[in-house]
Specification:
LipidA_mod_glycosyltrf_83, 8% strand, single chain, five-stranded mixed sheet, cell membrane, 470 residues, 21 helices, 2 domains
Amino acid sequence: MKIKSKHIIYLFPLLVWAVVCYGFSFDGLYGQDAYEYLRYTEALKTFLETGKTPGDYFWGVYYPIFGCLLSFVIPNTAIALQLISVLSLIVTSVYLDKIIRLTYQQKSVKHITFIFFTLSPIVLIHSMLAMSDMLACCFTTVAIYYLLLFIEKSGNRNFIIGAILVAFALLTRYAAMVILLPFCILAFMRLIKNRSYFCLFFSAVTAALVAIPHIIIRSQNSFQFLSHQWLQAWDILNLFRSDFVTVDGEQHYRFINIFYAFFSFFHPIFLAFGIVFLLFFLKSRKIRLHKYQQLFLTAIILYALFLGAIPFQNKRFLILSFPLVIAFLFPFLSQLAEVFKNRKLIFPAIFLIQLSLGLLCGKSFYERNTLESTIADEVEKYEGNTLYSFDIDIALKGRKLNFNYKSLWKEEYSEFKKNALLLVNEKQVEKQWKGKNPLLNWENVKNNYQLAKLKSFEGDFNLYRIDAKK
């Protein structure tokens, strides 16, 4: 994709990435999912180099595949994955700009995409992470553009490109299909109306070719994602709940799921002044939705209801539909931009506010990344021992520490090995895992074994040596 002069501003995330990566030594790894992407990316690279099978993998395959390919150019795999997220944000911004120009017949978007999407705190921060969110958002947004281009102007080429990108989006983040469904239906109806049956056949074949890596990698479990625990617990009544007990323990949220599902309209982490925008929008005497606004809103609501019925909340899942929120709100945002166009300090102020909120949003990710690095450096001297742990063990594996790992989550232990190590966040276990293996194991070892504390870390993690039974 050629970056035109009007799109140069969208390269700003590259500057932020350079500062974050090389100035603050942040490699985009945190929590558990990022390390799973890292693990499988490296397994794919090993497969291409040695032929050793990479094994099975649960999530969409294309983020680690692209990470693997880029890692041959950038040897540091974590940075390669991080860079894919940054580049995905740039491409997404450019194509969101194109969607707005196409659907509203606008020659200029007045930097609205840059201010309200590219600089959105949660979007900018997730473009710095080794996570698949931005790549999935990118494929979804570009697919929507080409499907809209076909709906608006026809052209079999647009439909074929759209179909290929739909396949990429789906096989990067399965849930993307929920957002893409309305656009696919309209494009399909237009195709049938045009009687372009060969185009339909050719599109199906090319989309199937895109699915080949998924079929090969997941040959035994191609549709296992449909049996994911969240889908099994999917219940429309969850929209009106905020407390859940699942295999992930007890979760208590401030808002019920139906509010969470629409955070992208009003939460400051998405839109700094979202509540103000929403109030002014709803206060308008005449709300006449453009035909494509109706389509955008349909996709947004479908996805919101899908997420809200899952017994879990994670704001990053809403990133996938956020470009459509900006596209939907564009007429209103454009009117505001027109009102304030003569006030030169408004947009610099919004720019600084967005960046400040981004720093605030990114603080927890940076602290977690630092904590994982600190713990890894501290426990490295104990390598070779048995280590009982939970949560943080994924990071230690990802950072290539050699332990005989015993998960406090996977099974309940009746006996613990003498002189083994125990790394645990006691407060988290006691708060979240009532009646589950992590708490049962912690209570067992605490009550029945002598524990020697070796080190305390920030974030309430403690490292113990398990001595003799009491």
